[in-house]
Specification:
FAD/NAD-bd_sf; Metab_Enz_Cyan_OpOx_G3PDH; 7-stranded mixed sheet; 12 helices; 529 residues; alpha/beta; FAD/NAD-binding_dom
């Protein structure tokens, strides 16, 4: 039996963060992970993170993963891959299956960071090849470069469903519809909006009746559901698809904690069966800690902070740091974690229908039902301004934890304030120089630069663009509305790419002036994939 000061189960964002924090305090740390590559979900996440600088905002997930791996290596953390932990016992002993052999380990402290698994729903034909989870689609696309399908229907409008839908579009798939049995979109409105403006229709209060096909998916039928989630006869809709992607939630992988005898609870707001633990992640068994989704489903940014907190708590438990040092470090981490848990998507608001923003502005009902803010709703939000010359238009309409735009603007035109969930506002006394840094920094792709006085009859609009092939100056096509409908002809007048933009290209189009506040996407003469 081999001993370590600390054994971490799971090499995802929370597990690596915990291991790094503990190793820096002098602990001998090993991390076991059942996968062939470390990093957990981070290497599937090609989108930019929300939050602030301390939360690694506007950095893409896979780059955060690379940074964590480098930091773990520098700290001397031992990472063992293809290692499945199949037993955890009360004396902090583990059995681990490595290369068809069972190994026995003992840790003076244990941190469980096993994450969560995808939920599934059953319907007629759900076992057909072509029905896949959203995580599987991300693995195929972002880790192995495999296109999951040609025509895809997405079930689930939480952040996972919205983000993966956009990535499917980036991969060249045709997303025929985004469906959810809930009456309103569950994820961030900015994620929904960037999907909607590409032309993907949303069907809320709908779910799948059946998948069609004999040996693989060839189509799908959906239908509207009532308030009791029963099908409404006569509302069936058919789509020709070869892939059905399911993003219907996650469940904490807490089996090891049950095996060890930790006290558990069934908590729907945290995702299901989770351990009872304190703020530092310590379970009912002293020396056994949890971090990340295994203790409650949240974003990866929160998981990394929870991991660091658990690493510090374990370090103090084993005597490598004193309580005063632990508490000083935990205070800053607790503040950072609390800032991520504010706004309308805070854990305390899960399942609630939020009617107004923190500023007292009516939430866009069109956004919640159709994925985009209606033209007659957009003007009430503080990020919408009109002035002579180029200026930012910030279509951020929900209180979400994010503020990179405030830091990105060199002229300090954009203000959010200390509360990172506040809606962004434009400082009317500051002059925008049209650099586009705010457009590129926005994790939700919700900022546009508009010049309503560009020419006598035309306005210019600078859009965030993350599709290939990249249009070139002089290309002509159609401008699409927030709903994804073609509304006018458009011409590309500038394309900017810079390392500082981190693969978000700035596409500037010219449209008739009356469409300056309506055109939000460019569709070239040939299909953009």
């Amino acid at each position: 039996m081999k001993r370590y000061d600390l054994i971490v189960v799971g090499a995802g964002p929370s597990g690596l963060s915990a291991a790094i924090e503990a190793a820096k305090k002098g602990l001998h740390v090993v991390v076991f992970d059942e996968n062939e590559k470390p990093g957990g979900q981070l290497f599937k996440q090609i989108h930019k993170f929300f939050g602030s600088k301390e939360h690694k905002a506007k950095i893409r997930g896979f780059k955060i993963g690379e940074s964590l791996l480098a930091e773990a290596d520098e700290a001397g953390v031992e990472v063992v891959l293809n290692a499945t932990v199949c037993g955890l016992y009360q004396e902090k002993e583990l059995t681990v299956r490595i290369h068809d052999q069972i190994h026995h380990y003992k840790g003076d402290a244990i941190i469980i960071a096993t994450g969560a698994s995808e939920n599934m729903v059953t319907f007629d034909g759900w076992t057909l090849p072509g029905v896949i989870g959203a995580g599987a689609a991300q693995t195929m696309m972002n880790l192995h470069g495999v296109k999951p399908g040609n025509k895809v229907l997405m079930l689930g409008s939480g952040n996972v469903g919205l983000v993966v839908s956009f990535q499917l579009l980036q991969c060249g798939c045709d997303v025929v519809a985004l469906v959810d049995a809930a009456p309103r979109i569950g994820g961030y409105g900015v994620h929904a909006a960037k999907v909607a403006r590409t032309g993907v229709p949303f069907y809320l209060s709908h779910t799948i009746v059946k998948a069609e096909g004999k040996d693989h998916v060839t189509g799908v039928t959906i239908a509207e559901v009532d308030s009791h989630f029963q099908f409404i006869p006569g509302t069936e809709k058919h789509f020709d698809v070869d892939t059905i992607c399911l993003a219907v939630g996650l469940s904490p992988m807490s089996q090891l904690l049950k095996m060890a005898g930790c006290k558990m609870e069934d908590n729907p707001k945290r995702g299901g069966q989770v351990p009872i633990c304190d703020k530092q992640g310590q379970t009912s068994i002293p020396g056994i800690y949890v971090a990340g989704d295994v203790s409650g489903i949240e974003e990866a940014s929160s998981a990394m902070i929870e991991g660091r907190m658990a690493g510090l708590a374990a370090s103090e438990y084993l005597g490598f740091i004193d309580k005063a040092e632990r508490d000083t470090s935990l205070e800053a981490l607790d503040s950072a974690l609390d800032s991520l848990r504010q706004g309308m998507f805070a854990p305390k608001n899960k399942g609630k229908k939020i009617e107004k923003t923190d500023e007292g502005i009516d939430i866009s009902q069109n956004l919640l039902k159709h994925g985009y803010v209606a033209d007659d709703e957009i003007e009430r939000f503080p990020g919408i301004t009109h002035r002579v010359g180029v200026h930012p238009i910030m279509e951020c309409t929900q209180n979400i934890p994010c503020n990179p735009c405030q830091d990105a603007c060199p002229m300090h035109c954009i203000k959010i304030g200390e509360q990172i969930t506040s809606l962004p506002v434009v400082d009317e006394d500051k002059q925008c120089i049209g650099c586009g840094m705010c457009v590129a920094s926005c994790s939700g792709q919700a900022i546009f630069l508009v010049d309503e006085s560009f020419e006598e009859e035309y306005a210019s609009i600078t859009l965030p663009y993350e599709f290939l092939p990249l249009p070139t100056t002089g290309d002509k096509g159609m401008a699409l509305s927030r709903s994804g409908k073609p509304i006018c002809e458009a011409e590309v007048i500038d394309v900017k790419s810079s390392p500082a933009f981190d693969q978000t290209h700035l596409l500037t189009i010219k449209v008739p002036k009356e469409y300056a506040m309506k055109a939000r996407f460019f569709q070239g003469g040939q299909e953009n994939a």
